[in-house]
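Morning!

This is the sequence you dropped in the shared folder:
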Amino acid sequence: RAGITPGKNYTFTLDVHSFALANANNVAAKKIGKDLGREMDLLFDYKPSPVVAIQAGYCMMFATTNMELIKGGDAANYNAWAYVMVKVSPTFFMHEFTN
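The structure's back. Tokens below.
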């Protein structure tokens, strides 16, 4: 994970994930190695107020043929998705309990 905070209210982050099996496997006489692929996530977080946060992300999955053997599909296809999330976290009740 690498990130930069150029301003008080926003952050850019790059996350890299590696997917792997605990052990190599044999399925239907095919040897499946441990490495399943990598994913890169580019995230933008913006917090305009203490109650509201906005996150936008773009994610790319680079699967191996091992992933293809387990999940199906074509590992050579470009796999990417994007999203926008708005999080609202108001405080409705706050009480401090004392002994």
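Headline: The mean pLDDT is 89.

More detail when I'm at my desk.
O.
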